[in-house]
Amino acid sequence: MDDSELAVNEPDPDPLTTAERWRGEGRGVAIATVIATWGSSPRPVGSQLVLDKEGRFAGSVSGGCIEGAVIAQGIEAIRDRKPRTLDFGVSNEQAWEVGLTCGGKVQVYVEPVED
Fold first, then answer.
1. How far apart are CA 17 and CA 6, in angstroms?
2. Cα separation of the two ends of the chain
3. CB 84: neighbour CB atoms within 10 A?
4. Residue 79 and residue 66: Cα distance in Å, rounded?
5. What Å distances lie between residue 12 and 22, 46, 50, 76, 111, CA to CA?
6. pLDDT of 2-24, one tens digit each?
7. Contact 43, 52 (CB under 8 A)
8. Among candidates 66, 61, 59, 73, which has minimal Cα distance to 97?
9. Whole-angstrom Cα distance, residue 90 to residue 54?
């Protein structure tokens, strides 16, 4: 595998198009979708991120530590074929550390894409 195959956060404007392409290439794929937000959130409800079992991804659901946790859970969802709902909430004091600039909560639904 060369360095170009390890690129992350591909510039494809539509994560679902990327998911379809990756599935066509035989990759295990999961889709993460922001389903609820409260307070500050860098990405609105409906924002999506698609990832493969190697951790390559396109799109965004938040940024910061939250996105890393979503990717890790997405890889697990691909492995165990089970969807999950993830809840992230932080105080104003912790907000900058995880990418929620003024505190808030984000709920993300992660589901594996089945054949």
1. 19
2. 25
3. 16
4. 20
5. 12, 17, 11, 24, 20
6. 444 434 554 556 889 999 999 99
7. no
8. 66
9. 28
In residues, how long is the chain?
Answer: 115
Q: Which two tokens stand for residue 51?
A: 């990832």
Residue 52 token pair: 């493969």
Question: And the tokens for 16?
Answer: 């679902």
Q: Is 54 helix (H, G, I), strand (E, B) or coil?
A: coil
Q: Is 36 left (phi over 0), alpha (psi -120 to 50) or beta?
A: beta
Residue-wise pLDDT tens digits, 15-51? 899 999 999 999 999 999 999 998 777 788 999 999 9
Q: Give this prediction's pTM.
A: 0.79
Q: Which two tokens stand for residue 98?
A: 């995880």
